[in-house]
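Dear all,

This email documents one entry for the complex benchmark we are building for the journal club exercise. For each entry we list the sequence lines for every component of the assembly. Then comes the predicted three-dimensional structure of the complex as a token string, followed by one or two observations. Please use this as the template for your own entries, and keep the labels exactly as they appear.
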Amino acid sequence: MNDVTPIRTKVENALLSRFPQIKASLPGDASIRDLRDDAFTTFQQSGLPHRRIEAWHYTDLRSLLRDAPELAVVPPSHVIQRAAEHGSALDQVQATRLVMVNGFYNANISSFGLPAGVTVKDMHSALGQSEPLVSSHLGAATTTPDPLIALNTAFMNGGVIVSVAPHTKLELPLELRFITETLDAIAMTPRVLVIVGEGAEVTLLESHQGPDGVSYQTNAVVEIFGASHSHIEHLRLSAGGNYAVDLSTLAVNLQQEAVFHSLHCITTPGLARHQVFASLQGEGIAFDVDGVALLSGTQHVDTTLAIDHAAPGCTSRELFKTVLDAQSTGVFQGRIMVKQIAQQTDGKMMSQAVLLSDDARMNNKPELEIFADDVVCGHGATCGALDDDLLFYLMARGLPRLEAEALMLAAFVGEAFEKIRHDGMRDVFTEIAATWLKSRSTMTKQA
Amino acid sequence: MLEIRNLHVSIEDKKILNGLTLTVHDGEVAAIMGPNGSGKSTLSYVIAGKPDYEVLDGEILLDGQNVLELEAHERAAAGLFLAFQYPLEIPGVATMSFLKAAMNSQRKIRGEDEMATADFMKAVRGAADSLGIPQDMLRRGLNVGFSGGEKKRMEILQMALLAPNFCILDETDSGLDIDALKVVSEGVNALRDPKRAFLVITHYQRLLNYIVPDTVHVMAHGQVVKSGGKELALELEATGYADYKTLAA
């Protein structure tokens, strides 16, 4: 049908010529090689997603991606050592940490010893060793065709597999800490599988950090499988470098009566897209996904959700808060799909944005696709400036304008943080927001 | 002492205040009365520093300092306080955190040390008790879900804690039943002090039975058109504003 040959961009050409050159060096047995080839063929046909594709209308990756840096390699020990020296906002929370350096899992700088019921495997070696969890789970969390997942699958060469045995109740959170330690631009394609057994309870933290001034790129795919009656809280912090490209897919597959909450908070990377594809496969699932984005400079940050209600009696709640300063751009796309079988679905989605500058821009696109007749579904989107009357009220009590704004913005994003179940992490995110608000006042004063 | 001299103010090219002149001395309670649209609320906002208004001429001096050169928060730190006619609801901002932020910000602007938490808590509890404000209200979002009376009491609580030297009460009686009016008035009366002055803006004489003024000023068409003692309020209650609506026209 499509006999128009699109003109390839520099990045597309680089990716297209790279795969045949390096595919022999990527880990994987015959079945993985097939998987990679299929994924690459998909990418070959579609190229990078662009604005004529509806899901990418506001984030035209074809024009936003300027370079295709070399694929990261397993880092040598001095790089690991430097990476281990970095602190993180999450350090104040006691956790079992699994550390990835430039996408590759490193047991030496990860927590010593794992809690009972938890097994961890290095994805890099698992891919090459016909690991049963790979063949049973990799790519199985979502059926949504997606160019980022395809690119990750073609090039995947890092990450980790975490499995939590049924009925394990983890006392401490498990943290997946991604540290980028590089002076040159590199591309990373880690793949993570988290398999949570029946009735198990897990708090999963995911943090991303890296150097400023380096245009490194991450295209991570995290697949989470929650068996029936599992309780999972997934808290993600994207705080990479100011030139970083942070592309991220969270694919969630849940079974009966599972309880799932995810919040992702994004502060620093220059260009980011966080996609959440959720498949609610069993009855009575409670699914919540929230997000907070604090944007300044020329940041472009996109959150795209697709929640698939494929079973009756599930609830889903989505609350997204975006604060946009300077010339930043925000995108929220949320789609709740309710299949015909999914009667008694209860879904509510809300995206709220505050624009602090005339040059900031927000694109909100909530959608509902409902094929069942007995459902309660709603969505809303707001976009506006802070209320001048409220600001005056606070100023009339002695607060300077920026402090008054900070108080209101902290309350604005606080509504999403309130939903975090892990007390320590709620404090961590609240502090991250407070620090961002404070830096904003210093920057404005200097300007 | 607050001195307003020949104040001309407009909003969106509409002239509201036309050469208003008024002096309120330390320790004095001055009442401003006047018909709807005479510019009473505009006067309170202009003194407090609301940015929407354009001051065309004149000056406002607080203890000799021209407050028109200050931003709203600096005026507050200099000792001005406006009790709002309609206090705003700020969801997610706990009343207690707001009070602490406001008090410490004013102290910082004045070059004073922050208040110790224990002293702050003690001060808030004391003031809340005397106004009949339950502790759980202080933990809730500022004014969120409060009744009209509770919001006005919260304004007086803020006034008591911030200890300003010039207080403006903008139609504090609006939306209050008799009992709430008494509580609020008692709160205000307890703050009367030889060093503190009040400007009480109201439509009705009723409030002035509880907060008894030293002087009464009648506003019409953006000016003070008549001044007198507290008996002037009673006179207005009997005659209405009809005479004043034409006086300045």
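Observations: The interface with chain B takes residues 388-390, 392-401, 403-404, 407-408, 410-412, 414-415 of chain A (CB under 8 Å). Residues 222 and 255 of chain A are 17 Å apart (CA to CA).
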